[in-house]
Amino acid sequence: MMRFLANENLHIEIVRGLRQANYEVLFVPDLGLAGHKDREILEYSEKNDLIVISGDKDFGGLNLGTYGDVEK
Protein backbone atom coordinates (compact mmCIF):
# COMPACT_ATOMS: atom_id res chain seq x y z
CA MET A 1 0.00 0.00 0.00
CA MET A 2 1.12 3.54 -0.70
CA ARG A 3 2.35 5.57 2.26
CA PHE A 4 2.16 9.35 2.26
CA LEU A 5 3.94 12.26 3.89
CA ALA A 6 1.65 15.30 4.05
CA ASN A 7 3.53 18.58 3.99
CA GLU A 8 2.63 21.12 6.65
CA ASN A 9 0.72 23.36 4.25
CA LEU A 10 -1.75 20.63 3.33
CA HIS A 11 -5.07 21.25 5.04
CA ILE A 12 -5.62 18.93 8.00
CA GLU A 13 -9.04 17.92 6.66
CA ILE A 14 -7.34 16.37 3.62
CA VAL A 15 -5.02 14.45 5.93
CA ARG A 16 -7.99 13.26 8.01
CA GLY A 17 -9.94 12.25 4.92
CA LEU A 18 -7.06 10.17 3.59
CA ARG A 19 -6.65 8.51 6.97
CA GLN A 20 -10.39 7.76 7.13
CA ALA A 21 -10.03 6.14 3.70
CA ASN A 22 -7.42 3.86 5.32
CA TYR A 23 -4.33 5.44 3.78
CA GLU A 24 -1.24 5.69 5.92
CA VAL A 25 -0.52 9.42 6.13
CA LEU A 26 2.25 10.96 8.21
CA PHE A 27 1.90 14.69 8.81
CA VAL A 28 5.03 16.86 8.81
CA PRO A 29 4.08 18.81 11.99
CA ASP A 30 3.42 15.55 13.88
CA LEU A 31 6.96 14.43 13.04
CA GLY A 32 8.59 17.61 14.33
CA LEU A 33 9.54 18.66 10.80
CA ALA A 34 7.40 21.81 10.56
CA GLY A 35 9.43 24.70 9.20
CA HIS A 36 12.09 22.46 7.69
CA LYS A 37 13.29 23.10 4.14
CA ASP A 38 11.57 21.29 1.27
CA ARG A 39 14.81 19.44 0.59
CA GLU A 40 14.77 17.97 4.11
CA ILE A 41 11.15 16.88 3.69
CA LEU A 42 12.06 15.14 0.43
CA GLU A 43 15.05 13.45 2.04
CA TYR A 44 12.86 12.21 4.90
CA SER A 45 10.28 10.88 2.44
CA GLU A 46 12.93 9.07 0.41
CA LYS A 47 14.51 7.44 3.48
CA ASN A 48 11.09 6.28 4.69
CA ASP A 49 9.59 5.28 1.32
CA LEU A 50 6.84 7.91 1.48
CA ILE A 51 5.07 9.85 -1.26
CA VAL A 52 4.98 13.59 -0.53
CA ILE A 53 1.69 15.42 -0.92
CA SER A 54 1.80 19.18 -0.63
CA GLY A 55 -0.30 22.26 -1.22
CA ASP A 56 2.87 24.22 -1.96
CA LYS A 57 2.79 25.14 -5.65
CA ASP A 58 6.56 25.25 -6.05
CA PHE A 59 7.32 22.10 -4.04
CA GLY A 60 6.94 20.03 -7.20
CA GLY A 61 9.86 21.89 -8.75
CA LEU A 62 12.14 19.85 -6.54
CA ASN A 63 13.03 16.36 -7.61
CA LEU A 64 15.10 13.83 -5.71
CA GLY A 65 18.42 13.41 -7.42
CA THR A 66 18.17 16.73 -9.24
CA TYR A 67 17.50 19.35 -6.59
CA GLY A 68 21.21 20.07 -6.15
CA ASP A 69 21.75 23.38 -4.41
CA VAL A 70 18.10 24.45 -4.24
CA GLU A 71 17.54 26.07 -0.85
CA LYS A 72 13.78 25.70 -0.44
Write down the Rg. 12 Å
Overall shape: it is globular
Total helices: the number is 2
Low-confidence stretches: none
Structural class: alpha/beta
Overall number of strands: 3
**Which sequence of SSEs, written as H and E, runs from N to C?**
EHEHE
**How many angstroms does the end-to-end distance come to?**
29 Å
Provide tags for this entry:
single chain; 72 residues; 3-stranded parallel β-sheet; 2 helices; globular
Structure, described:
It is built from two helices and three strands. It is α/β, with parallel strands linked by helices and 72 residues long. Strands 2-1-3 form a three-stranded parallel sheet, with helices on both faces. α1 (12-20) links the parallel β1 (3-6) and β2. It is globular and about 30 Å long.
Please render the helix and strand layout as text.
Elements: E1 3-6, H1 12-20, E2 24-27, H2 38-47, E3 51-53
Parallel strand pairs: 1-2, 1-3
Summarize the structure.
The protein is of the alpha/beta class and 72 residues long. 26% of the residues lie in helices and 15% in strands. The protein has one domain.
